[in-house]
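Please fill in the sequence for the structure shown.

STRUCTURE ENCODING:
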């Protein structure tokens, strides 16, 4: 992300802010993909708590946060860092790509309304390109990797089973590069990163890379989409 290179602004002006550049495999994304076959919480509504947390990384956290703030059943989405130590959990350090951190989002949701498997269905289909290794669109580096930080052993089982399911079905032309590991810690990002997409809808980076994700979500998963996003900073 690195405060977005100048060439993006030039591209935005040249293209009339109309071409979504967030994926090199756009023809494969923004389309319905199969539901997770292994999603036990969804299958057993009687054995559920009212709150669960998921931590997902998939490129710049501005767009990932923006997508999941529109999901029905989600109560909060915080941009932050996961995968490294507390002392390096800040934007300047993470941007160097040497901290072990990935830009990630912490999603608090009600599993009685939306399951972890359904969140992953959105994550793999419209939120980012899971076949890209250590990059998303214009952003390069391990801090932009695709990774699921499982908050429980069950989440890890669901994630690994779903990746195997999608790969075996050849849903994407390339293998899924998403890593799966146990969540060790999540560190909220600086305040100016929270709700960035909502606060800066005309920024060229947002227009080119992130607003197309919101539009795709609304089109592909209308039953899971809500028009009014849930924000970190509420009035």
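FILLED IN BY: designer on duty
SEQUENCE:
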């Amino acid at each position: 992300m690195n405060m977005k290179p100048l060439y993006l602004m030039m591209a935005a002006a040249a293209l009339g802010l109309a071409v979504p550049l967030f994926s090199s495999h756009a023809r494969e994304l923004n389309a319905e993909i199969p539901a997770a076959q292994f999603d036990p919480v969804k299958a057993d509504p009687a054995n559920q708590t009212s709150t669960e947390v998921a931590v997902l990384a998939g490129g710049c956290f501005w767009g990932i946060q923006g997508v999941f703030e529109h999901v029905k059943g989600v109560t909060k989405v915080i941009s932050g860092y996961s995968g490294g130590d507390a002392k390096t959990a800040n934007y300047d350090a993470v941007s160097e790509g040497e901290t072990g951190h990935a830009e990630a989002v912490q999603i608090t949701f009600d599993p009685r309304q939306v399951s972890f498997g359904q969140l992953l269905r959105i994550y793999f289909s419209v939120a980012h390109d899971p076949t890209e290794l250590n990059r998303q669109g214009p952003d390069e580096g391990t801090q932009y990797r695709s990774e699921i930080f499982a908050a429980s052993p069950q989440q890890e089982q669901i994630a690994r089973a779903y990746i195997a399911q999608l790969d075996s079905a050849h849903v994407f032309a390339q293998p899924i590069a998403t890593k799966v590991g146990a969540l060790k810690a999540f560190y909220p990002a600086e305040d100016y990163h929270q709700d960035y997409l909502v606060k800066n809808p005309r920024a060229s980076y947002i227009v080119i890379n992130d607003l197309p994700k919101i539009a795709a979500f609304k089109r592909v998963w209308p039953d899971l989409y809500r028009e009014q996003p849930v924000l970190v900073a509420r009035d």
